[in-house]
Amino acid sequence: MKRICLITHCEATHTVDGRVGGWFNSDLTEKGKQQASQLPGKIRELGFDFQNLTVYSSDLKRATQTAQILTSGTNTPPILDQRLREMSFGTHGGMIQSEHNKIMIPVSPNGNRLDHQICKGAESRRNVAERICQFVDEIMQLEKDKIVVTHGFAATFFIAAFQKIEISSMGYINYMLNPGSISILEEDSIFRNRVVKLLNG
């Protein structure tokens, strides 16, 4: 059986400051650091051998800080990968959220949800899906249990990629995952079924 412990980064400053996230490189709040310090115990309770896990993380600070805190008692520093980043909001990264809400274009005028950019320089759903699918395909070749630290919306595409949902069918998908949440993804060794064992725990 192959297992992935998928973690969304803990509470970050851009959220409490009311700013757009994406690739805006915010830090964890004090509450976020406390949340991250509780993750190792929760992961052990879920049956993972925490000392022998490979940990991957988005290279944005809030995810990296989460990963560094949860691995602080081990000898395995996280492996950083920019493919695990949140969707980029281009020139709107770090913008006051209320200002962004006024000028973004949330829905494609021609109905093409996969390639729509909600603001200038933003990634499309297809952009995010392609890079995350590539990452998931790579790590699923490995037998060892893994921890992956990413972002709330990016985690949606991670779960979809894990379940082999075609990118062409990712136009509407979205899971609401809280900061510091844990989801468990398993592929059984007999039928190779891919199961979401826990979502947003």
Q: What's the overall geometry?
A: globular
Helix content: 25-40%
The major sheet is characterized as: 6 strands, mixed
Quickly count the helices. Answer: 6
Determine the strand fraction and express it as a percent band: 5-15%
E-strand count = 6
- Span between N and C termini? 21 Å
Lateral arrangement of strands in the main beta sheet? 3-2-4-1-5-6
Mean model confidence by pLDDT: 96
The gyration radius over C-alpha positions equals: 17 Å
Which structural class best describes the helix and strand composition?
A: alpha/beta
Low-confidence stretches: none
Helix and strand run: EHHEHEHHEHEE
Question: What are the key terms here?
Answer:
201 residues; 6 helices
Please explain how this structure is put together.
The protein is α/β, with parallel strands linked by helices. It contains six helices and six strands. The chain has a six-stranded mixed sheet with strand order 3-2-4-1-5-6. Helix 2 crosses helix 3 (61-70) and helix 5 packs across helix 6 (152-162). The longest helix has 16 residues, at 30-45. It is globular, with a radius of gyration of 17 Å. The mean pLDDT is 96.
